[in-house]
Amino acid sequence: MYRQVATALSFTSLVLGQQAGTLTEEIHPSLPIEVCTAPGSCTKEDTTVVLDANWRWTHVTDGYTNCYTGNAWNETACPDGVTCAANCAIDGADYEGTYGITTPSDGALKLNFVTKNQNGQNVGSRVYLMKGDDKYRLFNLLNKEFTFDVDVSNLPCGLNGAVYFSEMDEDGGMSRFEGNKAGAKYGTGYCDSQCPQDIKFINGEANTEGWGGTDGNSGTGKYGTCCAEMDIWEANSDATAYTPHPCKVNEQTRCESEEECGAGDNRYAGLCDKDGCDFNSFRLGNKEFYGPGMTVDTSKPFTVVTQFITDDNTDTGALKEIRRFYVQDGTVIPNSQTVIEGVDPTNSITDEFCEQQKTAFGDTNYFKTVGGLSAMGKSLEKMVLVLSVWDDHAAAMNWLDSNYPTDGDPSKPGVARGRCDAEAGLPENVEAEHPDASVTYSNIKIGAINSTFTAA
Questions:
Q1: Which segment of the chain is annotated as a signal peptide (predicted)?
Q2: DSSP characters for 78-142?
Q3: Is 151 a residue whose pLDDT tops 70?
């Protein structure tokens, strides 16, 4: 996955550390989930969601002056990362009015793509599942299945409605880093396998060193924030993929060099496997499986089921397989079979599949170098659920739904990933043409294998 976070609005209180602001009350929207032991035997859990800190208004602790405006830090408040964290606060969020985040029904979350508001507009969002006011809800996915309903009918080419797990700290890094005074309550501590360098605060310090703007409201700094990531669902109405991304580290870790961050020519030397081992039905030869009117009909809602199979069928066993299937209109739909020369027919992710796929596509198998499914499984014991919608300033989402690389021959195995036009995902195009796009997630469940869904 090639992710660049779309940093949203930056607006613009003295104590040590990244502060929690008090100018806007922080109220977490409700998003209950269910925990299941057998079909029809599920218990509701009163969970909520919290907006990522990167989207929040960052201002001086003793007033309304911005610490970050556009794509630049306030040089007076932020002469360095430690001082900036002491001088600046991230504040509460107006989830619906500013960010277009709503809960249309119990157990449902709708994320709007572009939201007009009194400060201009917000683009995209990312939220985390909370258990209580101050901690993320941790998941152990081994020997479990994770299920949710999704409606991508209003999510066109170039957009990504993503559901995934990241190996974040339960408290957002508050206990590990004395500079972080905001914690999970304000959505701190993000990390993923791309080791993103556009995160404003990492390890309780502002990422000001080497910061440079990449577009009108985003930038990157010297440091990145790395951790293993399990992409359950990266999709729009025309393409989808699910992808494990293991890392050499087993907790949120700040990368401090281009090599550690896997930046530039160091992509296959970093702490994490940025490519992952993806299962994209279109890329793997079945071009009629997923899309409007197809086997999985994206013009209407459906259920996504992902199972994490261990070698001994226990919660402590080694991860050996990740299975996928769908449920729509009461019918269970098995995942598509691979139709690629050199790849044995399969519809799940195993180390053998990944080895064959990388060879067939001519891709570097950094997935294996980093530890493959075994390494991924160790991280799956303590994951935080992430739900988002975003556009891609780095690669226009071509890696998901078009030809990638864009100058590659689409007849060559692995290049064609979807039917979308390569320019559809350019931010200036998709933001202008589809500001009203949205994705809705609902009926989130976690439980024993074959416990979270029913079929007619």
A1: 1-17
A2: -SSHHHHHHHEEE----HHHHH-EE--STTEEEEESEEEETTEEEE-EEEEEESSSS-BPEE--T
A3: yes
SS3 assignment, position 360: helix
pLDDT at residue 68 is higher than 70: yes
38 strand-pairing partners:
41
Instruction: Give the containing element (helix H, strand E) for 144.
Output: strand 144-151
The question of whether 45 is a catalytic residue gets the answer: no
Element holding 258 (H helix, E strand): helix 258-261
Rounded CA separation 244/376 (Å) = 7
**Residue 104, amino acid:** P
On whether residue 65 sits in a domain, the answer given is: no
| pLDDT at site 456 | 59
pLDDT digits (tens, 9 = 90+) for 98-131: 999 999 999 999 999 999 988 889 999 999 999 9
* Domain assignment of residue 17, yes or no: no
Among 229, 256, 321, 381, the active-site one is: 229
Residue of 34, 234, 260, 431 marked active site: 234
pTM over 0.90: yes
Residue at 37 is within a domain: yes
pLDDT of 14 over the 70 cut: no
What's the token pair of residue 276?
């992952």
Share of the chain above pLDDT 90, in %: 91
CATH number at residue 303: 2.70.100.10
pLDDT of residue 218: 87
Q: Are 110 and 438 in contact (CB under 8 A)?
A: yes
Q: What is the mean pLDDT of residues 49-68?
A: 95
Tell me if residue 229 is catalytic: yes
Residue indicated by tokens 């977490």: 28
Reference 74, options 61, 92, 95, 60; nearest CA is 60
Tell me the residue ranges of DSSP E strands in 203-249: 205-206, 212-215, 218-220, 224-226, 229-235, 240-245
pLDDT at residue 6 in the model = 37
